[in-house]
Write a structure and sequence with these properties.
There is one protein chain. The protein has one domain. Helices cover 85% and strands 0% of the residues. The protein contains three helices and no strands.
């Protein structure tokens, strides 16, 4: 398997794990990606556009997760305040 395919597969797996909130899989992927990051990875120009598209999709998902998490924190805080008010 080429480095390009390994990076692309890791991005695909990360996207899938995030969409179903599989924390164990995310931790495993983090370890795998950390190991890859120790090496100077050079991707071919042919696969670069595909990898960048996957990276962009992952960034959008993470932004959405961050927004959802912030909303949950606000709702939880408001619910907690409401419970104390009664």
């Amino acid at each position: 398997m080429t480095i390009d395919q390994t990076v692309a597969d890791a991005l695909d797996e990360t996207i899938k794990a995030l969409t179903i909130l599989d924390l164990n899989r995310l931790q495993t992927l983090e370890e795998r990606i950390s190991a890859l990051a120790k090496y100077s990875i050079v991707c071919s120009k042919g696969s670069l556009s595909s990898i960048l598209a996957k990276k962009h999709l992952l960034e959008l998902i993470l932004q959405n997760c961050e927004s959802n998490l912030a909303t949950l924190h606000r709702l939880h805080g408001r619910d907690t305040r409401d419970q104390w008010a009664h």
